[in-house]
Each structure stands twice: as C-alpha cells, then as structure tokens.
Amino acid sequence: MDLSNPYIQAALQFLAIFITFNVVLMIVAYTVLAERRILGFIQGRLGPNRVGPGGVLQPFADLLKFIFKEEIVPDKSTRFVYFLAPLIAVTAAMMTLIVYPFGPRVTLPYFGQVELVIARFDIALLYVLAVTSIGVYGIALAGWASNSKYSLMGGLRSSAQMISYELSLGLSLVGVILMSGTLDLYEIVEQQSGWYGFKWNIFPQFIGFVVYLTSAIAETNRVPFDLPEAETELVAGFHTEYSALKFALFFMAEYINMFTVSVLATTLFLGGWNVPGLALLFSPGSIPFAVFSVIGFFVKVFFFLFLYIWLRGTLPRFRFDQLMSFGWKFLLPVALLNVVLTATLVWLGVL
Amino acid sequence: MTILIFLLLAALTVGCAIAMVAQRNPLYSAIALIGVFLGMAGIYVTLAAPFIAAIQVIVYAGAIMVLVVFVIMLLNVEEEVRRPIRLRYLIPLGVFLAALLFAETAFIIYFIETSAYNPPPATQSNVGLTASVGTGLFTKYLLPFEITSLLILMAIVGAITLARRVPALEVGGRRMQAATTESEKPSAAD
C-alpha cells in the first residue's frame, strides 16, 4: 500500500471523518445523559438511572423512542423547506468537526509522522465561522416552514439573536488571530505550547475569552440565552411542530454545536492539546505523549460542556430586550475595545 | 477529478440561479440564492482562493441572506401572482442582450485559451491565501479599498437617514404639533 497515493489518502481521510462523526455522536449522546443526571443532582433529584447500570444505556433508549414515534407533519406546512431545515441544522453542525486539531504530531509505526487533525488548511478558523453562520438557516427556516405562530416567533427570535451575537463572537476571535498571526488552528495551538501552560491565550486574551464564552452560549441557544425555545412563552419555539426523528436531528444539532463551540474555546484559548509539564515526562512525538495530550484536550472540552450544564441549572432566562441590549450595547463594545487594545499591544511589540 | 467537482458545483450554481429567478415564492428564491453563493464558494476553493470562498460564505450566505430571509419571514411576503407582461417589446431586447453576454464570455475564454501568456498554475502560487490578500489590500490596493469602504459607509448613513423617524419639534416640554392644533381649535370655534 502506497501512502502517497491520492486515492488511498482520500480513503483514509473518509475513514477518519467517519470515525470522528461517530465518536462525536457518542459524546453528544452522553452529554445529554450527563446533562440530565447533573441537572438532577443540582435540583436534588436522581435523573434517569433505570436503563443499564446508573442509566448508561439511556441515550440508546431515547434514540429508539425517537425512531418509533409517530411523525406528524403539519397540514399547511411548506413541505420541502420543512424537511430541509433539520438537515441544514445537522449538516452545518457536523461540518466544522473536521478542522479541529485534537492532538500533537506523533510518530506512528508504518504511517510515519502524523498530525492529529483531519483537514489542515490556511483558513480553518474562517471555515468554522462560515459553516456556523449557515446553521442559522436550519432554525429560521424550520420556524417559517412549520406555519405555526410559536415556531415563527422562535425562528425570528433565534435569527435575530444569532445575527447579533455572531458579531461579538467573530470580534472576540480577532484578538487571538492578531496575536498568533494565522488562521490555521493547528498552528495557533502549537504557538500556545511551552511555559507550563502560561502561554495559553486565555491569559493575554481574558476579555476575548469571556466575550467568546458569552456569545457562544447565545449562539448555541442555551440557557440563559435560550429565548428561541422559551417554553413558558413559545411552547418549544422553532421545533414546536417537529416530532420523532426530525426533532431528534434538531436536538442533536444543538448538542453538536455545544461540543464544537467548546472545542473551539479549548483550541483558541486553553491551549488545545497542550498539557502543562507533559514534555518533562515523555518526549514530544512519542505515542504516550500523544495519548495524554489527547486526553488533556478532551478534559478541557468536557470542562466546557460541564460549564454549559452548570449554567443551565443555575441561571434564569433573559428577557428578549435585555438579551438584545446586552449583545449590542455591552458585549459588542467590549469586543471592539479588546480588538483595539490587542492591536495596539501587538503593534507596540508587547504581545 | 477536478473537472468532475467543477461540473458538480457549476450545475449547483446555475441550477440554483435559474430556480431563483423562476420561483414565485420569495423565500424559495432566497434559498436558491444561498445555493448560488455556496456553489460559487466551492468554485473559488477549486480555483485555489480559499479566503475569498470563506468570505463569500460568511458575508453573503451567512450575513446578508440571513437578513433577507429574516425580512421575508417577518413581513410574510405573499407568493407573486403572475401578471400579464406589459413591456412585451422588451423581450427580444432581453434575448439579444443575453446572446451578447454569452458571445462576450465565449470570446474571452477563446482569447485566454489562445493567448501566449501562461500564468503559473494556481496551486503553486499563494495568491488566494489570507496573508497575500491582506498584504495586497493594505498596500497596493489601499486607495480602492478605502474608497469602497467610504461608499459602503455612505450607503449605511443613507439607509439610516431614510429609516429614521422624524422627531417632532419640542417647545417647552410640549410637542409643537400638539400645541398648534390645540391653540387652533378654540379660535375655530370662536
């Protein structure tokens, strides 16, 4: 087998993407379970613990239930768009998964030196922003196509919210881009290695990190920014009229988005796969070094996922006007200030 | 392989473009237009211009079209009703102009194919990379870039001026209009 053959490379690439999708779907399924258990803990109850030991088989039970539920399509819905919307939501959520570096360079037997990233290219960060901006259509079109007032209000709210917070999200990343001088995620991670973790971007870019985290929660429509699906006002928001597997697709898209947003936060601000002091124990490039780096990466990602769940158990929902004025009058100026500050410091040669 | 990808993307782009014009439901047109932008972004990638492709998706498909869809949803725009075409004599002119456009494109392609100048293959140059686009934009093409941004700024200011409500003149804490109508009423009764 010749590894330089483009067809074999393409086949390996496909295999890697297939494995990534499945691994991420498993993580997503267990994030849902973890959310229910942790929320239960926070609220002083047990949560689902009947299916399998401690409830570990609950995600599969849920999936089976979703598959066997009756599909109800609203009579006056716009058929084509109604079916298209959940597909857009899931596709856009999954497409970003391929660009994230999850481990360092490692020398494997037979394969030689391998970078643990599926697709490495010049504009990885822009690609992430571009694909996530397409994800808005899934929600907006779902709300419109259902032909229900609750869905429409949910869709309108969510598109307004996502447009507003996308600005602060993009601007909060500019600081990191200015400091690292590249859009290639792999290189951004590599630049953060060393100094026992004090080279992570979270230290010089703390304002950017906070702005990013806040607008990321708003972008994924999570508590306290879950206005698009505020139960008390809108039944279930944009997915009110969706049932069975199509609802499951929206649900999946939301949790994949949560995961990717956490991965991006880890990659840009928490040093990606860099584990402080690991180079003292193993030589960089060896297999144990790579294994522990990947574990470190996932620990950071799971910390962010836990943070999401924690916030959901803790904070009440914003009012819509509060949400808008917070996004436009506070978050955006702070993000702009951060850009100006970072640019000045980089120009002066401090950072 | 490259030609196959190109044909796929071109079919997507052209098909969506036709659908955009032919659709009578404004939201379907908007979705088709998004398809056009995505297809064009794909073509940019095959032409080794990834930065332009990403910006195309972020700005056009991700920002501008979201606003268009938002407005269509908010205003609940009705499906267009087919009306008799009033400007019937313009049809031959349209056909003629389309033919002219096609002839022009064909001539340019023929001209490029037969010309002696041989540019380096796109995959070897760094023309489309972010760094080179940025450098070009802020050094060699700074003036056109600034003029364009000024133009866009003017458009924004214009839009805000048009959309702004004219505030009523305030005199002594009372609205001018209300004051005049109130003072006029008794005099009319007299």
UniProtKB/TrEMBL annotation, chain A:
The keyword Zinc-finger does not apply. It is an enzyme of class 7 (translocase). It is found in: Cell membrane; Membrane. One of its GO terms (biological process) is aerobic respiration. Its EC number is 7.1.1.-. Keywords: Cell membrane, Membrane, NAD, Oxidoreductase, Quinone, Translocase, Transmembrane, Transmembrane helix, Ubiquinone. It comes from the Bacteria. One of its GO terms (cellular component) is plasma membrane. The chain crosses the membrane at residues 12-33, 80-103, 123-146, 167-186, 198-218, 255-275, 287-310, 330-350. It catalyses: a quinone + NADH + 5 H(+)(in) = a quinol + NAD(+) + 4 H(+)(out). It is a multi-pass membrane protein. One of its GO terms (molecular function) is quinone binding. PANTHER family: NADH DEHYDROGENASE SUBUNIT 1 (PTHR11432), NADH-UBIQUINONE OXIDOREDUCTASE CHAIN 1 (PTHR11432:SF3). NDH-1 shuttles electrons from NADH, via FMN and iron-sulfur (Fe-S) centers, to quinones in the respiratory chain. The immediate electron acceptor for the enzyme in this species is believed to be ubiquinone. Couples the redox reaction to proton translocation (for every two electrons transferred, four hydrogen ions are translocated across the cytoplasmic membrane), and thus conserves the redox energy in a proton gradient. This subunit may bind ubiquinone. Belongs to the complex I subunit 1 family. NDH-1 is composed of 14 different subunits. Subunits NuoA, H, J, K, L, M, N constitute the membrane sector of the complex. This is NADH-quinone oxidoreductase subunit H. The gene is nuoH.
From TrEMBL, chain B:
Keywords: Cell membrane, Membrane, NAD, Oxidoreductase, Quinone, Transmembrane, Transmembrane helix. It is found in: Cell membrane. It comes from the Bacteria. One of its GO terms (molecular function) is oxidoreductase activity. PANTHER family: NADH-UBIQUINONE OXIDOREDUCTASE CHAIN 6. It comes from Pyrinomonas methylaliphatogenes. Pfam families: Oxidored_q3. This is NADH-quinone oxidoreductase subunit J. It catalyses: a quinone + NADH + 5 H(+)(in) = a quinol + NAD(+) + 4 H(+)(out). Belongs to the complex I subunit 6 family.
